[in-house]
Amino acid sequence: MSKIVVIGCVAGGASAAAKARRVDEQAEIVVFEKGPYVSFANCGLPYYISGQIPHKKSLLLQTPESFWKRFRVQIRVLHEVLKIDRESKTVIVKNLQTLSEFEEKYDTLVLSPGAQAVVPPMPGITLSNIFTVKTVPEADLIKGYIEKNKPKTAAVIGAGFIGLEMAEALHMLGLHVTVIEKLPQVLPPLDAEMADFVSRHLMRKGIHLVLNDGIKAFHGDNTANALELESGNRVPMDLAILSIGVRPELKLAKEAGLTIGEAGGIEVDECQQTSDPSVFAAGDAVESISYVSDHKTRIPLAGPANKQGRAAGANAAGQKLFFTGAQGTAIVKTMGITAAKTGFSAREAVQAGFKFFESYTHSSDHATYYPGADTMHIKLVVEQDSGRVLGAQIVGKEGVDKRIDVLAAAVFSDLKVFDLEKLDLAYAPQFSSAKDPVIMAGFAASNVLRKDVQTLTCEGLKKKIDQKENFQLVDVRTPGEFASGHLPGAVSVPIDDLRERISELDSQKQTIVYCRVGLRGYLAYRILKQNGFQEIYNLSGGILSCQALMGQEQPGEQMHVKTSHGETVPVQALKQIMTDKSCLAIDVREKDEFSYEHIQGTSLFPLSRLSSQIRSLPKDKALYV
Ligand code: FAD
User: Fold this and answer.
1) 102, 251, 301, best to mutate for ligand 1 pocket (most atoms within 8 Å of CB)
2) Which of 217, 267, 470, 558 could form a disulfide with 123 if both were Cys (CB 3.0 to 4.6 A apart)?
3) What phi-psi label fits residue 48: left (phi over 0), alpha (psi between -120 and 50 degrees) or beta?
């Protein structure tokens, strides 16, 4: 009878133990876990803290008793493995309750110690109201602190996935939340212009964002009452959450002389076997192969950890099972907006040496004629010559999850953007459009590869402006849209007038066209191309992908709305007024602007069609515009 010992009992370790049992009914399987809980859902911790998951027991997917009953696996909680002796195939274990130490033999060992939350050394860091969110006891500490001390302000340090989930949780509990991020953007795995949609949304929802500034110190006596930033600014706070990333837990592996790979994790092969044939490893502590570049990488996420654990457990028990790699598919929802990513961002594609282009689309998440449609921003990173989808990023409100999973399957299968055009995806108006956002993204990127259009990113346009290149910039939106804000130096030639007014433009001059989302710009490109214009670019994704150049705010809570009597009222007041049935609020922007975002309860009457629709406006109601 072989003996399998597992270290760590969460995603990787628990999966390994259960799989090992399914492979070998006779093996003796022992798991050591230094914490008090096993197989807990750390991904659910922010929702437990907010109260959306009301009971702790919902997070505890297994207990040592249930594991024993179902799998005949012995789990020893509050037992820390101190050392691995590979010579004698033994681990030295400390019982954290009795403090006694003992040895345990193994034939094969699975190592899944996870990762630690990074806690940078700095003045005040040990003050009692500064927390990390990694385990159930830590979540309990945060909940307990909030219940007892009723903090009013919170600082969340680090605007990654966990940081933004915690910002939402604390906001839901009524705290004023400041999110502090050292980088100039939130959600560092995303490219900056995609993360920008999330930042703007968070600010509109009342989250205070401090970007481009790191923390230097916490100030206070027993508890911190303020933190100091590298810029010298101070942020008052009653509670702080540190979510600045995780570091693989490598102590045991290093001391045992296991090879640590170039990406900084335990090196393993496709069987999750380490440099010692008797030792397997899984989860946040190991390296895996990137499906996109075939290089070693680290992807500290639950999906890979579970699958690696499954492979490690099978192989430790004698069955060959492979884990071939991962691509970092991830998703987060915060304050009503969802951001997701699969494969490489543009930044990662540059680092890996790919030749690629970026393509943006802003489609409606479902048919605009069915209530509740919203804009879904999609960015594709596409290999230049082959058209292979290297990665995708999506920001939107509904349906982001299914689109990112379709694109994850595309990245995994090495699909080309031409394949995205051909996908046969489900459509009914509640769920999608006849041309799904993924298919629209495929159309836009394929048009570039077929040379039906030449696109330019916002970054590319900025460069041309900075280098003072000689070009004409043409805004093909309606005069109303142009008047509400446009790129500096642009001339207005609405798409529907372009054929008549084409002589106003110089066909020999480099021409850059843009609209709001890229579609009318594409139409303009085709008209100009067929009228002898030599060098034309369409701004990919239109000005929605270029907010940094626009510097224009979207409609938000701070906005004011004009009434038909000429006075202005704040949006908040309007919401109250609109509960009165004798009032009507109309939004006079264009349909795509309206579907991007609008004040709930307002009706769309685009200015361009207002005169023809004016009869349908009720005369007996107070009108807000
Ligand atoms: P862990 O889950 O960290 O488990 C390792 C265990 O090993 C720990 O319990 C530790 O106590 C134990 N251990 C360590 N050393 C020893 C030792 N010497 N002796 C005994 N025991 C030891 N991923 C997603 O994909 N989606 C999400 O939405 C998501 N949300 C998250 C939210 C939060 C708040 C956190 C913290 C993580 C989230 N993750 C998410 C990441 C995901 O939880 C991890 O990738 C996954 O849990 C890693 O599994 P693991 O087994 O490698 O490590």
Assistant:
1) 301
2) 217
3) alpha
